[in-house]
Give the backbone structure.
Amino acid sequence: MPKSPVFIVGSPRSGTSALVKALKTIGYNGYNEGNFLPLLRIIDRAVDNHFATFGRPNPNQLTPQIDQAKLKSGIETLFKQLTDQAHPYPLWFDKSGHAEMIPAIPILRQLWPDSVYVFCKRRAIENIASRLKKFPGHDFERHCAGWAKIMAAWRTTREQLPSHVYLEVDQQDLIRDTDAISKRIATLLQLDETQLRTLVKTFKSRRPQETTKGSATQMHSPESLGWSEAQIATFRRHCGAEMAAFGYGLGTEYYQAR
């Protein structure tokens, strides 16, 4: 049997939807958007903060009498039960582009020991340009900060993961070298040759979502996009460190010179 569940994480506008479509063609089931499981991490952090404030030993208060670990375990068990009930399939996936999904991965691995993770990524320049068109109601700085937060969270989290349970897939690599990336996905998920061929065919026929035709393969620089000096400064402040950490170039060359 292929590996299941598959958790698809990463920044919006980085090819996560293309992966969802591909998994559906090889027998996986799931929702186009998840965004339920990030709440697990949000609640986990809220519990820690609450007990840090009100959990000091005191025989006259309720909170110190509650077993914090037991409370967390009960919450996690409920999340697993609800999620499993919503996915009554032998093979299923969850796609959650919410930033809190990534630090929740250590908890998810405890709840689903056989789970695997695909981190979808895309260079900040093209990602933010796509975000601005898709979500014009959010300002430029919010998009920059959002991309950087997810990339930084993944760099931290992947250090806790064995290499055989995750894969990073860059949208440009998936478009330009579909066969090789599909084979890496097939290895992670333990797919057979028929499923691999279907995966390749799907990726080649259904390109990642594009805000305009051909935009997924276009390379840009901040200047070529017409960003103002103030926007470029904001971009560099938020995204510069993560761009460098992932080896991305700052001009029309997608990757830094190796």
The chain has a mean pLDDT of 94.
